[in-house]
Amino acid sequence: MVLELLRLVDEVERLDVQYYIGVEFNFGIKCGGPQITSSDRTLFERDNQTLGPASYFVTDTNRWAVSNFRYFAGSSNPQYTVTSGSQFTNTLDSELFQTARISASSLRYYGLGLENGNYTVRLQFAETQIVDTTGWESLGRVFDIYIQGSGGFPRRAVTSQFTDVVLENFLEIHLFWAGKGTCCDPAQGTYGPLISAISAIPDFEPTVSNNAPTSGDSQTEDFSPANKLGEGGFGPVYKGTLDDGRAIAVKQLSAVSRQGKSQFVTEIATISAAQHRNLVKLHGCCIEADQRLLVYEYLENKSLDQILFGKKLNLNWSMRHDICLGVARGLAYLHEESRIRIVHRDVKSSHILLDSDLTPKISDFGLAKLYDDKKTHISTRVAGTIGYLAPEYAMRGHLTEKTDVFAFDVVCLEIVSGRPNFDSGLEENQMYLLEWAWHLHENDREVELADSILSEFDEEEVQRVIGIALLCTQTSPMQRPAMSRVVVMLSGDTEVSRVVSKPGYLTEWKFDDEESSFMSNEATRASETSYGSTSIAGGAET
Predict the structure, then answer these.
(1) Is residue 18 part of a domain?
(2) Domains in the chain, number
(3) Of 250, 460, 491, 541, which has the highest C-beta tally within 10 A?
(4) How is this protein positioned relative to the membrane (predicted)?
């Protein structure tokens, strides 16, 4: 139900230029009223939208949202906000409590796109419905503000403060009817939750800005070729700069996506909810006419394929092992830990970016769905790159998490060997990396696969990584381990499962000269670009 209530409204369609899903570090909401700046300089954004008995509202900036549920019993003209002209004690900001949002049953507020960490959350209330008199009217003292069994505080500001941990850039505050209130005093249906203001302040030093990026192309110097970082299957990528000085990578999506503006923003919201140390951070997106841009963090060391195959950095064995482990952790998060499960579909070395500390971060996850409206596990449109495709996906379009597991195997072998998955310059039996790795494994010569530039390495660890990689290449997806299992094996916390046998697709597939030439050309092209590389979709490039 929560996910349905958070579906973005068609109000998005009325916006010509807008950035969405920027990561924030705080928010304040003036529930049921206009924008107010409090005496301590906290900005409380207005929340005076008209809500019905089953409705929701999302701000234009997607900083927060609110949803309401259920009718008030006995009321023919239900109101979901209240006002009061009273002055309230115990506060310097009496006007903060003169409006409030109410509900008959369930009232939820959501903080969206928050930077992860500990937050101090403050909920502010004041009784505005039940009067404080000596008459019978005051018998409704068990009233609509009910905090952990506390009594009423008529005309007095009440603050409930607590610490909450934001783990997935998402905070939910749920206020619900606790069974207290009255049926008819002072009016029909005086019961349910009431809230005047909400704020969330980080208990840490923020690393992001609350200022959304501007919409001018000047940030990338009008997409100058000099700023182009690479050309991927979803479009070119440029280096740019935000107003606060942060470097960014802007992906200019190709115009083949069939989704409307609101659908597109909803998918980007889903992608942005996936936050992990080994995933590239999505700062936001921009829509202007047919132009669709994604704004990512900029990573200094660019892509893994450039590092490995261009020999731009000398990666020792420890660094390579850590990269394998980091990629495995990122995929395990996407498959098994993220609130929204994501199959990448196109795991490859050019989609693994490295920060200044050589921490690997997976890019382009979730983007394939923007270009594919198929909802089942069988897709007529294959999105991936030759050399990394699992056989069941390449031949039948059968897509599961095990498709990514297979591609991870190829990336691991590339990291160990320092060579791409296909190299026409090598002898015939060594051209295909996966086939060569199996040959060495069958002859107990796995360590020969190690990159020749490695002056020293842990032979046992090299054998372990290769063994795990080959386990991930089994013909049957069921025989490939889950990525969480791969993480445990790479960490050395459990023994590597026994590799069953050489996959049938390697022993049975034979390529004649014409087919080999085609594969050679495609695989060579697939390794030439950074920040994304040549992909196939339905047999054609995108």
Answers:
(1) no
(2) 3
(3) 250
(4) Single-pass type I membrane protein
Question: Which parts of 339-409 are beta strand (E)?
Answer: 352-354, 360-362, 383-384
* CATH code: domain of residue 469: 1.10.510.10
**Under 8 Å between Cβ of 176 and 107:** yes
**Cα angle at 307 between 301 and 312, to 5 degrees?**
90
Q: What are the φ and ψ backbone dihedral angles of 165, each rounded to 5 degrees?
A: -105, 125
Percent of the chain with pLDDT over 90: 22
**Torsion, CA 54, CA 115, CA 326, CA 337, rounded to 10:** -20
Q: Among 263, 297, 331, which residue terminates a domain?
A: 297
Q: Model pTM?
A: 0.60
Residue 131 located in a structural domain: yes
Length of the chain equals 542
Cross-strand partners of 181: 191
- Please give the torsion angle defined by the CA atoms of residues 307, 310, 313 and 317, in that order, rounded to the nearest 10 degrees: 70
Task: Give dist(CA 477, CA 485) in Å, integer.
Answer: 14
CA atoms within 13 A on the CB side of 511: 15
CA angle, 386 as apex, 499 and 273 as ends, to 5°?
85
379: nearest Cα among 402, 363, 391, 395:
395
pLDDT band at 352 (very low <50, low <70, confident <90, very high): very high
In the DSSP assignment, the letter for residue 118 is: E
Environment class of 211 (CB within 10 Å of its CB; exposed 0-12, middle 13-18, buried 19+): exposed
Per-residue burial over 17-39, b if 16 or more Cβ lie within 10 Å, else e, is: ebbbbbbbbbbbbbbbbeebebe
- One domain for residues 194 and 309: no
What is the phi/psi pair of residue 416, to 5°?
A: -65, -45
The helix/strand count (H/E) of the chain reads as 11, 26
Does 368 or 481 have the greater pLDDT score? 481
> Which of 47, 93, 346, 404 is the catalytic position?
346
60 is catalytic: no
At 167-214, the pLDDT tens digits run 877 788 888 776 665 555 556 656 678 889 999 988 888 776 565 444
Exposed e or buried b per residue across 311-349, where buried means at least 16 C-beta atoms within 10 angstroms of its C-beta: eeeebebebbbbbbbbbbbbbbbbbeebeeebbbbbbbb
* Helix, strand, coil share (%) of the chain residues, nearest 5: 30, 25, 45
In Å, the largest CA–CA distance within the chain is 98
Whether 403 and 498 map to the same domain: the answer is yes
Tens of pLDDT, residue by residue over 213-258, are: 444 473 566 677 888 888 776 788 888 887 767 788 988 887 655 5
Domain coverage including residue 279 = 217-297
